[in-house]
User: Which sequence fits this backbone?
């Protein structure tokens, strides 16, 4: 009987050790990330990938007009909101990091990347972070300050590749550049444990829907065999929406010419989407250019005849309604049923 009790006791001890080890491993946010600020576009953002479920709810923290923080490796998630608050109060990224580390119970296990909208940044890797671990802070020629870092990486080449990608991909917009940096890191081995989740968080003042929030992109891939490919897909879907929001917000502010440039760019980028020439038509009408407005409405109707229903009730096009050219547009397609226009 004593022998049986001893075996049972050992079973529970080993089971407990295994459970604790698994629990500990689940807390390790081992990943690679880039936190950045673009001085020209005024965007701040973080892109991150990890062999960890739902990394987007842990690592990235940003605030428009303030900065961006990536907190990882046994991540202390309070570093995000607390760090942004300290930088907003005037502290530099390095000063902010020093206070966060001084008040932390496991500073040697943390890894943090911080950038501020004054163009400064700092990357910290604790001495007990799992190899390979490290980071870099650099500024591109076109004004992007970034902190790239990672732990449990295949090698230092991962961070080096991320930095190189940030410098060379000047043809990409800010969000795409962050994602491209992640992909470059993955091509050098990325997280040595593999891939699972990725996220992109970008803010710019007034960039959200209706200008009510600053969130331009909040994209998350929580579980995927190839989170990079899925993150790219989501960004491709979200880009025209984000640009449309930006143009709408400029219109609300009376900046019609700036808004029109975005709408016309969208017309070129997405020629099969009727909403873009339609929005350009509204922008032209608001600027008192009926000729170009009619031209864009015709383009929109040729893509999607249901646009006729919208244009007959849209207040942005009110100045065109008595024009013969506008009335003739309604005859291009028979769509009297749409929105009850009879």
Assistant:
């Amino acid at each position: 009987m004593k022998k049986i009790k001893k075996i049972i006791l050992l079973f529970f001890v080993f089971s407990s050790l295994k459970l604790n080890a698994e629990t500990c491993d689940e807390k390790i946010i081992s990943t690679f990330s880039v936190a950045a600020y673009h001085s020209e576009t005024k965007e701040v953002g973080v892109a991150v990938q990890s062999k960890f479920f739902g990394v987007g709810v842990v690592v990235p923290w940003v605030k428009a007009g303030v900065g961006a923080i990536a907190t990882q490796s046994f991540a202390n998630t309070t570093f995000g909101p607390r760090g942004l608050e300290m930088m907003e109060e005037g502290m530099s990224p390095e000063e902010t990091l020093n206070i966060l580390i001084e008040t932390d119970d496991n500073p040697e296990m943390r890894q943090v990347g911080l950038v501020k909208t004054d163009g400064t940044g700092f990357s910290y890797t604790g001495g007990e972070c799992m190899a390979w671990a490290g980071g870099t802070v650099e500024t591109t020629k076109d004004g992007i300050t970034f902190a790239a870092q990672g732990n449990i990486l295949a090698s230092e080449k991962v961070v080096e590749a991320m930095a190189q990608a940030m410098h060379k991909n000047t043809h990409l917009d800010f969000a795409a550049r962050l994602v491209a940096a992640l992909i470059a890191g993955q091509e050098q081995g990325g997280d040595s444990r593999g891939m699972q989740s990725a996220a992109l968080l970008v803010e710019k003042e007034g960039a959200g829907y209706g200008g009510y929030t600053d969130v331009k992109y909040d994209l998350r891939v929580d579980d995927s065999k190839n989170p990079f490919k899925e993150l790219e897909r989501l960004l491709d879907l979200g880009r025209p929406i984000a640009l449309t929001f930006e143009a709408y917000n400029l219109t609300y502010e009376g900046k019609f010419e700036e808004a029109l440039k975005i709408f016309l760019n969208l017309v070129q980028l997405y020629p099969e989407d009727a909403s873009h020439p339609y929005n350009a038509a509204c922008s032209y009408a608001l600027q008192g250019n009926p000729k170009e407005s009619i031209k864009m409405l015709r383009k929109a109707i040729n893509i999607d005849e249901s646009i006729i229903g919208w244009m007959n009730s849209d207040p942005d096009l009110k100045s065109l309604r008595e024009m013969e050219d506008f009335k003739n547009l309604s005859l291009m397609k028979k769509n009297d049923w749409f929105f009850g226009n009879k």
Q: What stands out?
A: The mean pLDDT is 89. The two ends are 91 Å apart (CA to CA).
